[in-house]
Structures are given as C-alpha cells and as structure tokens.
Design a protein that fits this description.
Length: 145
C-alpha cells in the first residue's frame, strides 16, 4: 500500500512539474508576443524620426497606445523562473522593482507623449524620450543578439 502511495505521489509531482514548465513556456510566448507588438509599432515611427517615412499622427498615436497598453500588461509576464528559453537576463529578477518601474515609466511616458504630440515638431521633441525608456530596458535586462 505505501509503495502505491509513493508511485501516486511521484506521478503527481511529475504532473505538477510538467504543468509548471508548460505555464512558464506560455508566459514567455505571451510576453514575446507583446514585445513583438511593441517592435512592430516602433518600425514606422522610427522611420518618421529618421525622416525616411512621412509623419503620420494616427500612426504615432497608435504606437503610443500600444506602448501604454503593453507596458501595463508586461510586468506580470515575468514571474520568477521564467527566463529559460528567452532573451530575458537574470538581472530582471535580481532588480525586479527597477525592471517593473521601467514599464510604469514607459506607460506614463507614452501617455504623456500621446497628449503632447500634435504635429511633426512635437513628435520629434517628445517621442525620443519614450524610445529611450525602451532602450534602457534592452540595455540592462535583455540578452544581446
């Protein structure tokens, strides 16, 4: 009888561990999808900053809306132990408050820029600060490709 209990307990522990691994893989996919959204929103806006794409206020506003929305959703998608198989550096969990603070800053900066940007001049004055927050995170918390 006790051997049977041990077998059942081992099977249960294996199932729990497998479920945790699957959950970690899912959270990595979710955050990578949101990060990809940020990158896709940035491409045309980056072209506008460089002058290779004409300024379009609606595109800028959509990008800023994406930044604000995704920045609010992303922090919970970095639970402890979810760095495996991703570009996330262990520094994220060592300096989690700082990391989470960058998302708060990104959301606030994007919302402030959304309100301030009305034309190309205000875009060029306000948008680079939003992008710098992204760069800070990439420089400190993401593996170099």
């Amino acid at each position: 009888m006790s051997r049977r209990i041990l077998v059942i307990a081992a099977a249960f522990a294996t199932a729990v561990a497998a479920t945790a691994v699957m959950a970690q893989a899912e959270v990595v996919k979710q955050r990578e999808a949101l990060m990809k959204d940020l990158g896709n929103a940035t491409k045309p806006v980056g072209g506008m900053l460089r002058g290779s794409v004409p300024f379009d206020l609606a595109t800028v506003q959509a990008a800023l809306d994406t930044y604000a929305k995704n920045a609010k959703a992303l922090p919970v998608l970095f639970p402890a132990g979810s760095g495996e198989g991703s570009d996330a550096l262990p520094t994220i969990w060592e300096r989690k408050a700082e990391f989470d603070g960058l998302f708060v800053k990104l959301a606030a900066d994007a919302s402030a820029a959304r309100a301030a940007i009305t034309d190309e001049a205000s875009f060029k004055a306000n948008f680079p600060g939003v992008i710098r927050t992204c760069g800070t995170c990439h420089d400190s918390f993401r593996k170099k490709s």
